[in-house]
Write a structure and sequence with these properties.
The protein has 279 residues and is an all-beta fold. It contains no helices and 21 strands. The protein folds into three domains: 142 residues, Immunoglobulins (Immunoglobulin-like, Sandwich), CATH 2.60.40.10; 80 residues, Immunoglobulin-like, CATH 2.60.40.1120; 43 residues, no CATH class. The strands form seven sheets. The chain has a four-stranded antiparallel sheet with strand order 5-4-7-8, with no helix packed on it. It has a four-stranded mixed sheet with strand order 13-14-10-17, with no helix packed on it. It has a four-stranded antiparallel sheet with strand order 12-11-15-16, with no helix packed on it. A hairpin with a 2-residue loop joins β15 and β16.
């Protein structure tokens, strides 16, 4: 539309709160290619009525692939391109470990390529996307090591806990702290897949009971832990007249396991029962 053609376009945003904004410019219906093109941006600190100019440039592309030590693509790696500590563009890797990120090309600007996985910064480096990247994508391949952790939770009887638990992991080494839930497998086993090497903190809670444990993940491993959710069972033995019995032996049985207690002088016995079940 030559009648309305102009090298400058104006747009306004009204009633903005004070703060720092990222303004992005897209070109709709480009002559070449499909979809819109990301051709400009500016980071603006708005404290009063503000005017800015944005110089638009061709869109450039970066192809990022992430693989583990088995040459398998790593899914859900959060790939970000930052400028001046602000995320300019971002996306997550697909199941095959690949993602395409588009940003405006620049002869002078340096972006920071930053990869975040399950709370950890797994890679960062400065990159440039010059005008050639509008035709030939920048390609980066990142290799990392990931491990599986399997945890078995047992009670103090050495038996499988038959009520629901939700073990989670976190780490002080994370750049953005998150809680990673375990997946229940069977027979008290919980699986944490594809963990980045670090020292993790395990947290298991049930009502007022808590298990916390530090676990170093530097290879795939299996560990067994006791969840000490103990309840006191108090038993008093009486004869048919209601008199206390002495020299009494009481046996509690559950799932083929027994606990035996003797009351030689007193008829009051105490047990620790780990399960919310019938003994």
């Amino acid at each position: 539309d030559w009648k309305n053609f102009s090298f400058r376009k104006k747009v306004g945003f009204k009633n903005l709160e004070s703060g720092t904004y990222l303004v992005k410019i897209y070109k709709e219906n480009p002559t070449f290619g499909n979809g819109r093109k990301y051709i400009g941006f500016k980071i603006v600190d708005v404290k009063e009525d503000t005017k800015i100019s944005i110089f638009c440039r061709p869109e450039g592309t970066a192809h990022v692939s992430v693989f583990d030590q088995h040459e398998k693509g790593v899914e859900d790696v959060y790939v970000r391109l930052l400028y001046d500590d602000t995320i300019i563009a971002d996306d997550a890797t697909s199941p095959n470990g690949f993602v395409e990120i588009d940003v405006p090309c620049s002869l002078t600007n340096t972006y920071e390529l930053n990869l975040l996985y399950k709370g950890f910064i797994i890679h960062e480096e400065p990159v440039k996307l010059k005008y050639i990247r509008s035709n030939i994508p920048l390609k980066k391949t990142i290799d990392i090591k990931l491990y599986d952790l399997q945890i078995k939770l047992e009670d103090t009887w050495g038996l499988t806990i038959d009520y629901s638990l939700n073990p989670v992991l976190t780490s002080n080494e994370m750049d953005e702290q998150i809680w990673i839930p375990g997946e229940y497998v069977s027979d008290g086993w919980y699986l944490f897949e594809n963990l980045y090497p670090a020292t993790y903190h395990l947290d298991v809670q049930h009502k007022s009971f808590l298990l916390d444990e530090d676990i170093i993940v530097d290879n795939s491993k299996e560990i067994a832990l006791v969840f000490d959710a103990a309840y006191v069972v108090e038993i008093t033995t009486l004869d048919s007249r209601g008199m206390l019995l002495k020299d009494t032996t009481i046996v509690l049985e559950r799932d083929g396991e027994n606990i035996e207690k003797n009351a030689m002088r007193k008829a009051l016995l105490y047990f620790l029962s780990l399960q919310e079940s019938i003994l």
